[in-house]
Amino acid sequence: xxxxxxxxxxxxxxxxxxxxxxxxxxxxxxxxxxxxxxxxxxxxxxxxxxxxxxxxxxxxxxxxxxxxxxxxxxxxxxxxxxxxxxxxxxxxxxxxxxxxxxxxxxxxxxxxxxxxxxxxxxxxxxxxxxxxxxxxxxxxxxxxxxxxxxxxxxxxxxxxxxxxxxxxxxxxxxxxxxxxxxxxxxxxxxxxxxxxxxxxxxxxxxxxxxxxxxxxxxxxxxxxxxxxxxxxxxxxxxxxxxxxxxxxxxxxxxxxxxxxxxxxxxxxxxxxxxxxxxxxxxxxxxxxxxxxx
Length: 293
What we know:
Radius of gyration: 17 Å
Strand order of the largest sheet: 1-10-7-6-5-4-3-2
Structural class: alpha/beta
Number of strands: 10
Number of helices: 12
Largest sheet: 8 strands, parallel
Helix content: 40-55%
Shape: globular
Oligomer: single chain
C-alpha cells in the first residue's frame, strides 16, 4: 500500500484495527516475562487463530506481532542477531492468518529508553535500529507501518525518519498518554501530533494506557490539530491486578463499543482496541458504527 492508496482508502470510511495481542496470548499459554516475538515464532497457531477471529469480527487491519522486534529491544533477550528472522517469520504468520482478507501492519514500538539530551540513547543508534527493523518489515511484505505505544514525539520522529529512508509505506503513529493528553516522557499529545504530521505521519492518535471513556476530549482535540486521520485504540477500561499478576479490565465489549462510538463521532476514523480487548470487542465496535463484520 502506498501513502496515496492509504489516503484514498481513508476517504471511503473508517478503518477497523484489531484488538489486543499480548493479553490474549497470555490466556493461550504464553509464559509471562518471555520474549513474545520468539514465543510466537515458535508457537504460531494461537496468533493465527486470534487474528482470524479479529478479521471475522470485522477488522480491516491486523498488527504483525513485531512490537519489540527491533535490535535494541531484542538485545535484552540476547536476540539482536535474530531480528531479521523474527520480523520475517512474524509477518509471514500474520499474512497466513489474514489470507488477503485484511491488511497486515508492521508493528513498531518504543525501546523505552530516553533519547539524548534527556537520556542516554543517541539519535544515530536509534535511527539505525529502527531502519534495520523497517527494512525487514518492508522485505517481508507488510502493507503499512504502525508506530504504537510511543511515549515521546522525538522517538516517533526517528521512526518516521527511518521509514522515509527505507520505503514508501504509510506510517501510522500512535502515542500512549495520560487522560489529560500528557505524554509519559514529557510534552502533550496535541503538540506531538502537529509535529508528526509535519514530518510525514499518515495518521496520528493514541493507544493503550486508558479506556475510551477518558478520551473523547483528547480525540476531539487531536482532530482539531491535524488534517490527517486520527487513531483511537484504547484499553478495555482501567485494570485491576490480581494476586497472580493478571490484569482484569473494567469494560465489557458493549460498554467499550459505546464509548468507541463517541470517539468516532469526535473524529477518530482508525478504531480498534488495546489491552484487555478481544474479537468480541471488535465485533461490537463494528456494530455501533454501522459496519457489518
